[in-house]
Design goal:
It holds the Pfam family EamA. Keywords: Membrane, Transmembrane, Transmembrane helix. InterPro entries: EamA_dom (IPR000620), EmrE-like (IPR037185). One of its GO terms (cellular component) is membrane. This is EamA domain-containing membrane protein RarD. This protein is mainly α. The protein has one domain. It is built from 13 helices and no strands. It is globular, with a radius of gyration of 19 Å. The relative contact order is 0.21.
């Protein structure tokens, strides 16, 4: 198998795995802080086991948190996980994944502001179109009474973009940072669940922990590893296309499992977001192909 096909297989697996994240969280039928704690603890444990195996049997010596930049990016990843799970519990799944799909545009905007990377006209046009789509979805949240969840999803998207920008500025390997950063939401989730237990108002509550543990220990590490490895064999725009698998498939899985039908505004806004991202990615892929063809010419 050549490198390009290997990259396509890896990113397809990663995108498909990521699309099961929200459905598995919801299948746990738990309350927010307990679910956050269980999912984060299992992801952190899986990351440590993988890191130890790589150090024991691999030729590379990966660093868990590389310096101050790693700590800053880890803080962003950790808080974004809290915001993301908060969004899952406070708005429709389609709203969450469509709004989080704005992350690449947030990253382009932050790169412009902090790294002096002026975006191309096509990036600016895509950003405007996606802003219109997000505006439609959030307006639907305002009308439907779940504005808080939409705001949390936008916060998660912004924090993810900030973490990506920090990683690009530092130019160091941060492959393990998103996984070990789950120690932050794990501690916060355990604190809130413990506080409710001692207060006699609840405590740890996840009806079907298997699904949440499967998500944290297997699905999330698999998705992040495949999508992080994909850029070794594919261009950035190609990898970005496979992130759209979660945006498109997660609402379908939730519709099939929970019969949750997105609102008309969410569907229209989501369609604008997805079409804008597809158009942008295809344009960038053609640009990469032209650049590759120039030396040959």
């Amino acid at each position: 198998m050549d490198n390009h096909k290997k990259g396509l297989v890896l990113t397809t697996i990663g995108g498909l795995a990521l699309s099961f994240d929200v459905p598995l969280v919801r299948l746990g039928h738990g309350e927010l802080w307990s679910t956050l704690a269980l999912r984060s603890v299992t992801t952190f444990a899986a990351a440590i086991v993988l890191w130890l195996l790589l150090r024991r049997f691999g030729s590379a010596r990966p660093v868990l948190v590389p310096g101050r930049a790693g700590l800053a990016a880890g803080l962003c990843y950790g808080i974004s996980t809290i915001a993301f799970l908060g969004a899952v519990f406070n708005t429709a799944t389609a709203n969450v994944v469509f709004i989080v799909a704005f992350t690449p545009m947030f990253a382009a905007l932050l790169g412009w502001l902090f790294l002096k990377e002026r975006p191309s006209p096509s990036t600016l046009l895509t950003m405007l179109a996606m802003l219109a789509g997000v505006g439609l979805i959030v307006s639907g949240g305002l009308a439907g009474g779940h504005l808080l969840g939409d705001i949390l999803a936008a916060t998660a998207s912004l924090l993810l973009a900030l973490a990506i920008t920090i990683g690009r500025a530092a130019r160091i390997d941060m492959g393990f940072v998103p996984l070990v950063a789950t120690i932050i939401p794990a501690l916060i989730g355990l604190s809130f669940a413990g506080a409710s237990f001692w207060a006699g108002t609840g405590g740890f509550s996840v009806a079907d922990p298997f699904w949440v543990m499967l998500d944290g220990a297997v699905i999330m590490p698999l998705a992040f590893w495949c999508l992080a490895t994909g850029p070794k064999y594919l261009s950035g725009p190609e990898v970005g296309m496979f992130y759209l698998l979660e945006t498109i498939l997660a609402p379908i899985w939730v519709w099939l499992i929970f019969s949750e039908i997105p609102s008309s505004r969410t569907l229209l806004g989501g369609a604008i977001l997805v079409l804008a991202l597809i158009g942008y990615s295809l344009r960038q892929m053609r640009r990469v192909e032209r650049l590759r063809a120039q030396p040959a010419a």
